[in-house]
Amino acid sequence: MNLAKKEQIRLTANLLNALSSGTILAAIVAPYIGMGMGTVSANLDLLNLLGLSGFGFVIGIVLHLIARRGLAQLED
Asked: Phi then psi for 10, rounded to 5 degrees?
């Protein structure tokens, strides 16, 4: 594998990892900021809030694992 291809893999993995970090941060922090600012209704079911936060967290983890798999290609 040439150097340009390796660098493309690294850049793609870096992008996916950055998206992963942003997704996890948004999933965990944004709903609570919305509740504090009053943009999310106060009668929102806590289970729905936790479910959506958990879903975003899982998506972030999946993106991170995809990035790790891409970097694992460089060992070959």
From this structure: -65, -45
- Tell the residue number behind the tokens 């600012």, with chain if given: 37
Supply the Cα-derived Rg of the chain in whole angstroms.
17
User: Does the global pTM surpass 0.85?
Assistant: no
* Contact between 13 and 68 (Cβ < 8 Å): yes
43, two tokens: 């009668």
pLDDT tens across 23-60, in order? 999 998 988 888 788 887 767 788 888 888 899 999 99
Read off the amino acid at residue 19: L
CB of 64 within 8 A of CB of 20?
yes
